[in-house]
Target: Enoyl reductase (ER) domain-containing protein
Amino acid sequence: MAAPKKTMRALQYNKYGGGAESLKHVEVPIPSPKNDEVLLKMEAASINPIDWKIQKGMLRPFLPRKFPLIPVGDLSGEVVELGSGVTNFKQGDKVIAISFPNGGGLAEYAVAPASLTVARPPEVSAAEGACLPTAAATALQQLKAAGFSSFDGSGGDTAVAAPKKNVLVTAASGGVGHYAVQLAKLAGLHVTATCGARNLGFVRGLGADEALDYKTPEGAKLQSPSGRKYDAVVHCATGTPWSVFAPVLADTSVVVDVTPGLAAAANSFLQKVTFAKKRLVPLVLVPKKEEMEWLVDVTAQGKLKTVIDSRYPLSRAQEAWAKSMEGHATGKIVVEMGGEE
Ligand SMILES: NC(=O)c1ccc[n+]([C@@H]2O[C@H](COP(=O)([O-])OP(=O)(O)OC[C@H]3O[C@@H](n4cnc5c(N)ncnc54)[C@H](OP(=O)(O)O)[C@@H]3O)[C@@H](O)[C@H]2O)c1
Model:
């Protein structure tokens, strides 16, 4: 009988910078799950900009905690071993998980905290499931931070006869944005979406009521084609100064920004202390198990679709990394461990 496998294929980097070329294929020991962790035989992982931003040193000196690092925190796989204290999973369970900031996803096996691991039903593919933990959860938390908490299509608890609130989603063709458009529609909102010219039809297909090419003069000013002002902005693009937002916002409005720079953070602070009605709110994802379960559930029900830009086997994960760094994905970028090598 063959001895149990002790090592696995993985990609890791040893220093800040270097992009895809710094990711090296290695054979390393399979990690052991510690207390309250599960070991997954990986089926798929999805890359997020935060993965290569950490490599670039944008969160230095906090992350990564150590080199070498096997990156990528959005995981999909099968439970093969339980750490002590884990009682809610068993070997063979298909799950999705988030392992942030430890990563580990670009490998044949990865450990994840049981507290951020949820069951994946057969209606949700491993690749789709791997896309949800960061991107879809961020979109959901942005909408919640903007005051929308009901996603049953009714338009909110009190808004039965009221006009639909108008929401702008920037970078609506990206990983976060394409979920945000769909979740905003589930919340019963009127949605204006910004994207490049090639994706105008794509974002309308996701449900956007109006689409705006960000490279046109109107797009640069975020002016909706109908001239409607925004009650909220789910801001997923980078580098938009407050002076662009201010004229297109309704009298009371919030911009939920997942990529705030220093100026945005300073503005946000000033607006808060002056009780401004138009406000920028920075948001950093705080993963929550119940939200991951909800996202899996609405996906299984066919209410939330994951669009996969491109899929790569582990042997070509550097290409996936480079593709994400280019910043032009339509939907999500996935690495599949069982794929053709
Ligand atoms: N704070 C947090 O917790 C958190 C969590 C998740 C993500 N994020 C951040 O959110 C951002 C978006 O993440 P993502 O995963 O969605 O990225 P992504 O998938 O790489 O986004 C790529 C898409 O954005 C579009 N795009 C780029 N600039 C645009 C602009 N100015 N206006 C309209 N569309 C634009 C691109 O269109 P073209 O190809 O046509 O240019 C492309 O389709 C990243 O900076 C990420 O780091 C933050």
